[in-house]
Design goal:
About 20% of the residues are buried. The chain is an alpha+beta fold. The chain has one domain (about 30-145): Porin. It contains one helix and nine strands; from the N terminus they run αβββββββββ. A hairpin with a 7-residue loop joins strand 4 (about 70-80) and strand 5 (about 85-95).
Length: about 150
């Protein structure tokens, strides 16, 4: 019986190490600052049915920590270079299927703000292609984030 338990434990250990190696092969290391510019659209703040507002902006996603397929760090955006950054927390996950699919939640420690946005993204060819959806103001945009070169 002990022989079977030992063989079973060895098989389990082999399976776990192969799964970990497989995850390492399919999970990119995203730790870095990523930036991009975008045009966003937001609903009118005056009246329902009024024309939406379009604005330019810049987004920096600074992935400071990554553990396997999970990551986190500050998410910063501003309408133009002369404006202070608006800073939120970003937490994200990279799909384990090797597709490069990424899900990100942008949130604030301020309970009146809470979750600010959901971001669907994809890592492909060294870039992050992201679709941003604000949960607070209805703002949406798509952006290509590239690693910042210092």
């Amino acid at each position: 019986m002990t022989r079977y338990m030992t063989a079973g434990a060895a098989a389990l250990a082999t399976s776990l190490s192969l799964a970990t190696a497989s995850m390492a092969e399919t999970t990119p290391d995203l730790r870095d600052a990523w930036s991009g510019t975008y045009t966003k659209v937001s609903p009118s703040r005056v009246a329902t049915g009024d024309a939406p507002r379009f604005h330019q902006g810049e987004w920096v996603l600074d992935i400071q920590q990554q553990q396997d397929n999970l990551f986190w760090g500050p998410s910063m955006w501003r309408p133009d270079a002369g404006t202070d950054w608006r800073v939120f927390d970003a937490t994200g996950t990279i799909s384990l299927d090797g597709s490069g699919t990424i899900g990100i939640v942008e949130s604030s420690a301020d309970p009146q703000v809470g979750v600010n946005a959901l971001v669907d993204a994809r890592y492909q060819n060294g870039k992050i292609y992201a679709d941003f959806r604000s949960l607070r103001r209805g703002t949406t945009y798509s952006v290509v984030l590239e690693r910042q070169v210092n």
